[in-house]
Hints:
This protein is mainly alpha-helical. The chain contains eleven helices and three strands; from the N terminus they run E-H-H-H-E-H-H-H-E-H-H-H-H-H. The chain has one domain (8-306): Rhopdopsin 7-helix transmembrane proteins. 75% of the residues lie in helices and 3% in strands. A three-stranded mixed beta sheet has the order 2-1-3.
Amino acid sequence: xxxxxxxxxxxxxxxxxxxxxxxxxxxxxxxxxxxxxxxxxxxxxxxxxxxxxxxxxxxxxxxxxxxxxxxxxxxxxxxxxxxxxxxxxxxxxxxxxxxxxxxxxxxxxxxxxxxxxxxxxxxxxxxxxxxxxxxxxxxxxxxxxxxxxxxxxxxxxxxxxxxxxxxxxxxxxxxxxxxxxxxxxxxxxxxxxxxxxxxxxxxxxxxxxxxxxxxxxxxxxxxxxxxxxxxxxxxxxxxxxxxxxxxxxxxxxxxxxxxxxxxxxxxxxxxxxxxxxxxxxxxxxxxxxxxxxxxxxxxxxxxxxxxxx
Length: 309
């Protein structure tokens, strides 16, 4: 098939989570509320870590970066969905779709990388406490975040450029609330073999690599905590990891649940509904998870909000 004859499409149609008109106001209200809470909660975390000198440490540096990425991840998908519901339009331009897909892949990748870097930070803090400030120096922290950005940009750019070479015919409806990579690629009428191979390869390399890094870090952490003699010491060491473990558990369980559920039901709408958890709900919950059990964050937020010194 000649690509020049069938790629002249200018737009796609996002079918959203439901096509029932009576449900649209409810969906709009729920997602607007979640988006505002996500923005407000993560912005507070960023401002708290910047304003409080006690939080100028590697752990909170990575946390503020994670909050920025969570805001960006949600902003890549939800605003367009809200606009489409409000205007009663399902249209997204071809360029807009590629841009949205690039942004989503970028910030989802960054989310995974930052969670891995934060696991390494906890490993150094617990297993090598005397050398923590030497190992986790500012230069290394910036370098780790920079590597995460470069790798995520290259991964997103690869998939976006490969998708831009595909030919699309008449099937322009995407049964999702955003331009999810897998859904868009499988709407093409040209050969998508290399796109699928690239997706499986990068998912296995980046996803599997980062998950292995997290598992390795926590295996060393558990081993180190087990060797601590006092119960109070064990609790104190483990408590520093609880928030991060909760976020990792929430992100990986919900994202894996999306693919397992879609594979089991073969339903695009089921996949779209399940993906709400790790694309929208998880970024909203992260600030609460990190602040509810963290005295330093609570103190910084209190100073930020009420100005108490």
